[in-house]
Amino acid sequence: MSQSGNDLLRQALSNYSSSGKAIKFEDQEAGNAPGTLEIPSGSKSRHQSPSQSRAQSTAQSRAQSRVQSRVQSRAQSRSNSRDQGEYRADERGELSEHELTQAASKLSMEESRRDLLKSSGDKLGQFSSEQLSSALSALLDKAGEKRLTTREEGLQGICSIMAHKYIADFEQRNREGYLDTFKRCLRSYKSLKEGLLSARGIALWFLQFGENDDSAYSDIYPFLAKVILDTNSTAIKSQAILTLAFANFISCEDYRDSIEILEICSKQFSNWQSAELTMMSLNAYGLMMTVLGSSNSDSAKQIFEKDFDIHYELLSCDDVDVRVASSENIALMYELLTDYSNEDQSDYESDEYDSDSDFEFHASKSSSHKRGLDLGLASYDHDELVDELVEMSRDSNKKHNKKDKQHQKQALRLVVASVAGSSNPSIKMNLKNHIVRFSSWTKISRLNTFKTICSNGLYMHFVENPIMHPIFGSSINSLVASGLGGHSSSGNHDERVVVDPKSDMAKYRSMNMKKMRSNKNINSFD
Fold first, then answer.
1. Is the per-residue pLDDT at 503 higher than 90?
2. Which residue stretches belong to region Disordered (predicted)?
3. pLDDT bracket for residue 385 (50, 70, 90)
């Protein structure tokens, strides 16, 4: 480091250490000095003569000015002594180049960490691994504090970073520390927020570190099973069930473990407690069926036969998310047990997307009924099921609001096409102007779970997390290999486009809609 560089660096550190914070404190101390005199308000005493009053007022004024002068003098003296001390230390060269460099690096790191902790999840890419690691260490310390709000801040920060960034490459040293912290907070949570963050944090831990880790799953299964059994909060129970299914999906290599999770899910949605718990149990059930159905179709068939009646009943539930989740599970089971989906097809939609792949519903009731018998489900009327799903896809129920109707129609059109046997489902996501298609209920079920766990950070895990590639196939491999180049593709108007309501695209659409409505209102007055 050059001499001029040393001088500039010393000056910067000196200015930083002697900033106005301490001076402001001294000013506050001066204003609150115990020796400050207060002049009482009110009229003069009748027993005082004018000369006595003037003399007393003059004395009080002099005393007050002396006190204020002494306090200000002490404050100025302290400030000057600090500056002189730092200047003399600088002259004597008490700080070596190495010490100066360390101090500057520490200052820069602290500022970066403060910026990082204040930043939103979608801006994490601008920070280095060292900065992220430093911020995570600070958050991990916070999550271990005694104060509830401090623990919540730590947990929320860790979950946000884990959801938006793949950190396993540089955080292996804290691998066990994160899981132990989440378990400790969930075991004795003091608020709903702390419990939900801890349960979600465990799911994010498996997404980051848990690939094919049977020992981690063997450790977490009895813990989460006890939480599900003991907690009175349906919200925490919902998150714990989904976390348990997700941990099984990521870490377990033996499909037989999924049967235990299916039994837990079945018990929850068979005994109504809340719409949220029922929906999350159905989603976890579907995720586990993607594991069991592809490994042992006979076992999956037996379990589905036992749980079909409750799925059918839930099609009439008042909550739209429960109705959709139940119908998608039925479609998933038809797909798994008939093996009609083409898993080898490419899911990546290029610019030359074939628009002739629009699905059409042409299946006859006789073929549908034959298909129901082939599944071993002769105990119910398959035609009745198809009629119910078709009616739901039209949704003329006046009790449902417009938003719920639209959501149900979009989802049920795909379900009807799949259950009737005419077409595979097809939904697509817009990722940085690239269209990624998901054309099987297996991938759609898995996508729903990953969206719940990762929220807005799903895209970054598609790109950075290697665990996503074997789960979602060639679409993700092509996306990474292409380096996110190229242009978006025009899609099929019958496909469901999945767009995050908080994304820039959603905001852009909302702004355009407002402008269109405003212009329409203006034109109507002309």
1. no
2. 24-98
3. confident
Residue 132 has φ and ψ, to the nearest 5°, of -65, -40
Same-domain status, 416 and 433? no
Using the predicted structure, report yes or no on whether residue 40 has a pLDDT greater than 70. no
Let me know whether 306 and 411 are in one domain.
Answer: yes
Find the DSSP H helices in 165-213: 175-187, 192-209
Same domain, 174 and 276: no
Structurally, how many domains does the chain consist of? 3
CB 470 within 8 A of CB 443: no
**Is 287 part of a structural domain of the chain?**
yes
Q: How far from 409 is each of 280, 312, 380, CA to CA, in Å?
A: 21, 17, 24
Residues 273 and 420 in one domain: yes
Q: Which amino acid is at 330?
A: I
Q: What is the pLDDT of residue 88?
A: 44
Mean pLDDT of 42-64: 54
CB 298 within 8 A of CB 254: no
pLDDT at 330 over 90: yes
Tally of residues, the chain: 526
Dump pLDDT digits (tens) for 295-308: 898 899 999 999 99
**DSSP labels, 126-159:** GS-HHHHHHHHHHHHHHHTSSSHHHHHHHHHHHH
Is residue 382 within 8 Å of residue 372, measured between CB atoms? yes
Residue 382, H or E segment: helix 382-394
Is 148 contained in some domain?
yes
The predicted model scores a pTM of 0.67
DSSP label of 450: H
**Which structural domain, as residue segments, surrounds residue 330?**
254-342+375-424
C-alpha distance from residue 461 to each of 122, 129, 167, 454 (Å): 12, 16, 10, 8
406 plus 285 within the same structural domain: yes
CA 10/CA 273 separation, integer angstroms = 65
Q: Report which residue type is found at 147.
A: R
308 within some domain: yes
Cα–Cα distance measured from residue 499 to residue 485, given in angstroms and rounded to the nearest whole number: 20
Secondary structure class of 428 (helix, strand, coil): strand
- CB under 8 Å to 140, separation ≥6 — which residues? 154, 158, 174, 177, 178, 181
